[in-house]
Amino acid sequence: MEIMIYDHTDGVLTKAQEQETLDLLQFAAQQLSISEQAEMSVTYVRNPEIREINKEYRNIDRATDVISFAIEDDETLDLPAEIKAELPEELGDLFISVDKVRDQALFLDHSIERELGYMLVHGFLHLNGYDHERPDDNGAMFKLQDEILTAYGLTRDANNEE
């Protein structure tokens, strides 16, 4: 899977966090059997930028931790199957606030790495059609999220701060 990372954090995002982003999302893609042709982006931002995105697209005027924009492209429906098979599957875009990741890790008393992983997998699952708006969806999505994080090695008690 191709993952593009954009850093709008003015130097807050570390190279280790960028690498962790790539490694964890590749792992999650393997767990869900996502095509190697798939593409997505992750943009790391600070609270003011994610607040503006949240306000513009969700009509909520406050900073949040992660926002996902899934791409549902129906324009390729009329193409021949051979051509469709060669086109990359565009999953969508994640926006993650590094400020919220830090604050929530402190509040929940676990590592920044664990909180970042949680946000990445949570957003990734949304890009792949998982949701938690209805009570019957909620359990399945969070169970899968915990399974992926645990298999990757980011457990709830991973308290090794960066």
In short:
Its cofactor is Zn(2+). Helix content is 49%, strand content 16%.
Descriptive overview:
- The structure is a single chain.
- By secondary structure, the chain is an alpha/beta fold.
- The chain has helices spanning 15-31, 47-58, 81-86, 98-108, 112-127, 135-152, and strands spanning 2-7, 39-45, 66-70, 90-97.
- It has one domain (2-152): Metalloproteases ("zincins"), catalytic domain (Collagenase (Catalytic Domain)), CATH 3.40.390.30.
- 49% of the residues lie in helices and 16% in strands.
- Helix 1 links the parallel strand 1 (2-7) and strand 2 (39-45).
- Helix 1 packs across helix 5 (112-127), helix 4 (98-108) packs across helix 5 and helix 5 (112-127) packs across helix 6 (135-152).
- The radius of gyration is 16 Å and the shape is globular.
- Mean pLDDT is 88; it is low at 158-162.
- Zn(2+) binds at residues 122, 126, 132.
- This is Endoribonuclease YbeY.
Look at the structure and name the CATH superfamily: Metalloproteases ("zincins"), catalytic domain
The CATH architecture designation is 3-Layer(aba) Sandwich
Element-level helix/strand string? EHEHEHEHHH
The whole-angstrom Rg is: 16 Å
CATH C-level name: Alpha Beta
Strand order of the largest sheet: 1-2-4-3
Alpha plus pi helix count: 6
Spans with pLDDT under 50 lasting ≥5 residues? 158-162
Mean pLDDT: 88
**What fraction strand?**
15-25%
Topology:
Layout lengths: L1 E6 L7 H17 L7 E7 L1 H12 L7 E5 L10 H6 L3 E8 H11 L3 H16 L7 H18 L10
Parallel strand pairs: 1-2, 2-4
Antiparallel strand pairs: 3-4
Helix pairs in contact: 1-5, 4-5, 5-6
